[in-house]
Amino acid sequence: MRAYWFDNAEGDQRLPHDSGRAVSADYLSQLGVLYYNIPSESDVDKLALERSYKNRDMITVSPEKMGAIYEEKVKSFFHEHLHEDEEIRYIRDGAGFFDVRSEGDEWVRIFLEKDDLIILPAGIYHRFTTDEKNYIVAMRLFKEEPKWTPLNRGPDVDVNPFRKEYLQTRQV
Ligand code: KMT
Ligand code: NI
């Protein structure tokens, strides 16, 4: 894992866009974003049990796996959105970027690779992209039924109860 302020430069979303200013795991935790490095899948089983994640699946995001819809998918993952539940991703192969909004509404870019696990809280605005290698395999964990409807940012979603609760909890 490596986190830094996004540079906001033009250019492909899959480029690093590294401003050179690092962001600490401590700062991420202030945003409610939790990060773990977990080499052993049995430790992920423990975490899933503790947090009552009952379901999981694996997703491969690559042109080989997705074919013609790959580019479209990658663009849609990159639309700024939130969820009404936590988003948990455990990277099993390849790499990618999760961008999350800071308290000042700037992008923090989080580079994740194998054995990295991230928990994004409900209500945080974020987006995802593969990197230039166009390949990531991730485990997605869910509490109950997969509930990952992305709610794209806009005036109506800004007042979503889960968004309001996130802002209140973080006091940001
Ligand atoms: C998301 O939430 O954007 C995704 O699930 C992307 C694929 S997981 C690496
Ligand atoms: Ni999401």
UniProtKB/TrEMBL annotation:
CDD domains: cupin_ARD
UniProt-recorded name of the protein: Acireductone dioxygenase
EC number: 1.13.11.54, 1.13.11.53
Gene Ontology terms describing biological process: L-methionine salvage from methylthioadenosine
InterPro entries cross-referenced by the UniProt entry: ARD, ARD_euk, RmlC-like_jellyroll, RmlC_Cupin_sf
Protein source organism: Hyaloscypha bicolor E
Lineage: Eukaryota, Fungi, Dikarya, Ascomycota, Pezizomycotina
Co-factor(s): Fe(2+); Ni(2+)
Subcellular location per the Swiss-Prot or TrEMBL entry: Cytoplasm; Nucleus
Biological or metabolic pathway of the protein: Amino-acid biosynthesis; L-methionine biosynthesis via salvage pathway; L-methionine from S-methyl-5-thio-alpha-D-ribose 1-phosphate: step 5/6
GO CC terms: cytoplasm; nucleus
GO molecular function: acireductone dioxygenase (Ni2+-requiring) activity; acireductone dioxygenase [iron(II)-requiring] activity; iron ion binding; nickel cation binding
Reaction catalysed by this enzyme: 1,2-dihydroxy-5-(methylsulfanyl)pent-1-en-3-one + O2 = 4-methylsulfanyl-2-oxobutanoate + formate + 2 H(+); 1,2-dihydroxy-5-(methylsulfanyl)pent-1-en-3-one + O2 = 3-(methylsulfanyl)propanoate + CO + formate + 2 H(+)
